[in-house]
Amino acid sequence: MFRRAWLPTLLLLLAIAGCSRCGKDQGPVAPQQDANLSRYLPRDAQASIVIQDLGALGEKLARFQNLKAASFAAQLQSFSSAEGYVNAVMRQVGVDLRSRQALEAAGLAPERGAGAAFLGDNRAVSVVGVKDAEKLEATFAGFARTRLGASEKKQEKGAGGNLVTFHRPGAPDAALGLLFIDGGQYALLGAGPSVAALRPLASQPEEKSLAKEPVLAASLNRLPSKRDFHVYLPGGTGLLPAGTVQGLTLAGLIEPRAITVHADAPWPDTQASLAALDVVKDAPDLRGWLPADSFLVVRFRGDPSQLDGVWPYLVGDYLTRAVQKSGLEMKAEVLDNFKPGMVLGLSLSPQVQLGTGMPVLDLRRTNPFRFVNLVALSDLKDAARTSALLEKLPEMSTHFGAKVEGADLKGQRIYLTSYRAGEGAHFALGPNGKLLVASPRSQLEATLTALARKAEDGPVAADLKDVGQDAAISVVLDLRRLADAVKNLPSEAWGIGGFAIKATTVRWLEATDDLRAVTLAVSRKERALQAEMSLRLTPAASTPTTTQPATP
User: Who contacts 532 (Cβ-Cβ below 8 Å, separation ≥6)?
Assistant: First the structure.
């Protein structure tokens, strides 16, 4: 019962608490308050989370309950609505997190925040603010009795504070422990084997606490100060193995129209290896030549010549070995000749067949161009140099398990690719010295025609144009456009009897249509790698909520 009920609900308490300021004009997180919480969390935990405030949840949680996507997810768990699901979870927790009054009535001080540390071996501890110690003890006594069957209470004063433990009848080990730290403002909480860690944490030297973790402190200084919570993963642990990074810090912000996570990791290599993420301010915007129906758009505003040490990790072992066997000098012949501003777009193929089942995610076995159309563009420093390289492709293509043949299209030289799974990515030099990579052939021909005209507005919607304005890499996955493309597929795309599949898919898409887009921006700041990941939302118009606290 404990593992099924307590840890998931405790983690939910901590995660949902990140909503506590969403939609409000929240200033920077109070450093002293963070330090107070972090003082009782260990530096060597596998992961830690710190939250500023557990209050002001009612309206915010109710707002997310109103999302159609939330109700759809709740229905998958056999609940009629998201509110019904959350009510059930609140009853399991024993405290309704949507009500500041309920939190205070349970003895918690929501304005002091909360934190948690995951110690490994199924051990986790939490720290919470205390408003009324007697009420908080009574709250967890009720939880221990009704949820864990731990009806026996023991109390012991000692180093760090007063430890209250709850035991099952006749069991020597505590099922739940609550340590009120000397001073009365905070309490540590643990279950099962985690109880033994409470007293050492309450009395640990400050230099061993998360409050004195220099990697975390430096990352928080680089990250936006407006945040609802932050998570820290130290390097060298099970989650971040040794030899990767010193640590990873995630800062989350939940707003009515977006859930955003900023990531920061000190770069373990030389500063020069981050040069590819230096933004070239005057890089041209080639997105205006991408197809208007592109649901995925990627733009790179860094210097491609700086990707020399990175490209093997981007393309994978198979293509890296193929490049080496072909004799292609990737940096000298390719990267050094690209200008900043490369773009890529994917759109749903109108010939897609969705009635054939899920594809195998292996390019050697499944042709991706059965499902999507590809367009990639780059300006070139020397078009003649790339033209000479394209003429070598038929000879080099055998090392890639493909066949490339040159052809003429109304006087335009094009290079058509095929491989065992079917049609591959084709190449051509477009007007004004642009390299075009596209598939299928019809898409290549359409893009060549578009390149002869003036660029249009491009496929990125107006409400998403702010993505990655100061980043070297920006990615926009337009969920609404993808959903519309799926809905508009012809009946033959669904196969025999596909009308039932299409109806189910359309209902699923309509149930999640308040999920607007997923965006990503990658950049550098000082000697750190940073990323901003966001789920954009289109919530329904806000309505007054009369949600009543769930009765435990």
Answer: 260, 261, 262, 263, 468, 471, 519, 520, 521
User: How many residues comprise the chain?
Assistant: 552
Q: Helix axis angle, 498-511 relative to 68-76, nearest 10°?
A: 120
CB-CB contact of 457 with 469 (8 Å): no
CA distance 509 to 128: 40
Tell the residue number behind the tokens 């944490």, with chain if given. Answer: 201
18: confidence class by pLDDT, cuts 50, 70, 90: very low
Q: Which residue has the tokens 């069991």?
A: 171
End-to-end, the C-alpha distance of the chain in Å comes to 16
Residue 402: count of CB within 10 angstroms of its CB: 17
Identify whether 440 is preceded by a cis peptide bond (ω within 30 of 0).
yes
Q: Per the structure block, which two tokens stand in for 61?
A: 């949680």
* Residue matched to tokens 């490994």: 120
Q: Identify the pLDDT of residue 385.
A: 94
Residue 28 has pLDDT above 60, yes or no: no
- The token pair at 425 is 């990515």
Give ∠ CA 517-518-524 in degrees, rounded to 5: 140
E strand or H helix at 385: helix 383-396
CA distance 90 to 460: 40
DSSP structure class, residue 5: H
- At 431-487, the pLDDT tens digits run 888 999 999 999 999 999 999 999 999 999 999 999 999 999 999 999 999 999 999
